[in-house]
Amino acid sequence: ALWPGLGFIGDRSGPNRAPQNREAARRQLLKGKYLAVSLIADAQAQRTELTKEEMEKVAKMARSIESVIGATFTGFVGPWIIGWLFGTLTAIKGMGFGGAVRNGVSTGTAWGLMSAAFCGVEVFARECRGVSDKWNNMMGACSAGVVGNCGKGPGAMASGCVNFAAMSYIIDMFIGRPKDPFDELARDPSKTEEGLMGKVNTNKATAS
Questions:
Q1: Averaged pLDDT of the chain
Q2: CA distances for 10 relative to 16, 19, 53, 77, 161, angstroms
Q3: Which of 48, 60, 73, 198 pairs with 163 at a CA distance of 20 to 30 A?
Q4: 88-147 residue pLDDT tens
Q5: Do residues 127 and 67 touch, judged by C-beta distance below 8 A?
């Protein structure tokens, strides 16, 4: 026989073995396909799970960035307006209108930058640490002291950081800080929503 098992002339057992070999090959091929499909399904399931976790991390990071940018911006605008008014009104008699306006812009910019540094760093520290306490205030105050003494040398900047941080610590120690109702919402919005839904359900059950 030229090719045993494939049914060529001269091999009586060939025609009987050929269908068996083809059936075994077909079963082996099906097993391989099933295994490949199972592996692909498992990989897709794991990929979907990781994607959800990554999306949650990205959403949380986006909320943190938005909070820091918003706090920095609002922290700058308000004090800048107040500083501009204060600097303009206090200098208008001795410096004239033009000089008073320039003094107001300089004063407002200094106040705005210090406030923006305080608010931005304080919120950034809160987002990174996940808690709202006096240490966040101290870091924000330190940054405000550095910005306020920027351009006066490293010694003045370090002194401003220490002085402002110490002042923040003393204020928090004696006055205390009221609990911010939005802190929990900023850290985990889902918990706040669950709490609100629980209160609504409790009120419905009490009413009924």
A1: 75
A2: 13, 17, 66, 99, 100
A3: 73
A4: 988 887 778 888 889 899 999 999 999 999 999 999 999 888 888 889 999 999 999 999
A5: yes
Average pLDDT estimate for 79-85: 92
Q: Is the pLDDT of residue 54 over 80?
A: no
The contacts of residue 61 (CB under 8 Å, 6+ apart) are none
First to last CA, the chain: 91
Give the chain as a 3 state SS string. CCCCCCCCCCCCCHHHHHHHHHHHHHHHHHHHHHHHHHHHHHHHHHHHHHHHHHHHHHHHHHHHHHHHHHHHHHHHHHHHHHHHHHHHHHHHHHHHHHHHHHHHHHHHHHHHHHHHHHHHHHHHHHHHHCCCCHHHHHHHHHHHHHHHCCCCCHHHHHHHHHHHHHHHHHHHHHCCCCCCCCHHHHHCHHHHHHHHHHHHHHHHHHHC
Token output for 46? 């794991």
Tokens for 7? Answer: 């049914």
Give the pLDDT score at 24. 66
